[in-house]
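1st attempt posting a full record on here, be nice pls
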Amino acid sequence: GRCGLGFRRLAIIDLSPAGNQPMSTPDGRYTIVFNGEIYNHQSIRQELISLGYKYSSGTDTETILYGYAEWGEAIIERLLGMFAFAIWDNHNNTIFSARDRIGVKPYYFYQSGGIFAFGSEIKSILEHPAVRTEFNINELPNYLNFGLSSRNEAMFKNIQKLPSGHCLKI
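the predicted structure (as tokens):
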């Protein structure tokens, strides 16, 4: 394929292997990587079960995945929690990413030369051989004055942040 997803899991809900990520729908159309916690996932889960979805884990990850399969991007309006996630659509060759309203969970991305790489930490993006480690001098004043970079930029050139409460579709 056109998309590769990797994940290092910190298991909080459903410690079994059924909760491992990346996680895909049974038909293989959608695949998710997710960092965070959805506080109201049990109520969304019950609604999805009533619509016929069959769960194989107790995770909030599976709830986002099935919610996206059912409601598309509108799933975001239903989610209460802290999160950053990306869902690959294998039929349409698109990736949909979202970040929580407050921005508790980070989402960094790099896009250049036909490559799109993302992660919750910059160091995961820097592992890609196409990504050069160059200091973003334009962010130095923000870092020195406020102790962090701006809303959209990171301390490395060509690495951006998805702002709080925003989505991205490629």
